[in-house]
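To whoever is on call:

I kicked off a structure prediction for a single chain this morning and the downstream step that reads the tokens threw a length-mismatch warning. I double-checked the sequence; it's 183 residues and nothing unusual in it as far as I can see. Pasting both halves so you can look.
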Amino acid sequence: MGVHPALRPLLVNAVELRRQPGASRRVVTEVDAAELGCESPVPGVRLEGDVAIDLTAVSGADDIGVTGSLTLTWIGPCRRCLSGVERTVIVEVAERFVPPGHPAIDERSDGATVIEGDQIDLAPILRDLAVLELPAAPLCREDCRGWCPQCGAELSAGACGCETERSDPRWAALDGVVLDEPT
């Protein structure tokens, strides 16, 4: 199994856990986002630094539950003003792993993952969860007004004085029309 050395802590011995229901294993580590394979589909948005992982795998009667959290930081440009944005987020993890042939595999709504071989590889699931936290269109703040499309002034700092009302000459004939109020 060709696992990158940095990702080895994300391998959980399923055989050892399944021998005794109630047995647990804690996984606490930090992995570089690039080594985890987290690539954003959004240009300019990326994970920064390490992804902190704090998980606990617990063996059940016929499955292994993995719960915990990921802490990650993403950076990218604000979609309105292009200033740099950096946010740290905590992602909750709750996954269920079952052996091959388990009835939960056929239940589409269950969401259980099949244990392949003797180990559970947490890296693909953590990668997916981390990438899903990356914003499609980051904002530096909710009330960011961006830049004036005419003069380029930063609108969050104040009004620029440009004419914001633009009329379409194709509709100029309707400017004088007044509609009566219904009675």
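Update from on-call: the warning came from a stale cache, not from the record. Cleared it. Sanity check on the structure: The beta strands are 11-13, 24-32, 46-59, 64-77, 84-98, 113-114, 119-121.
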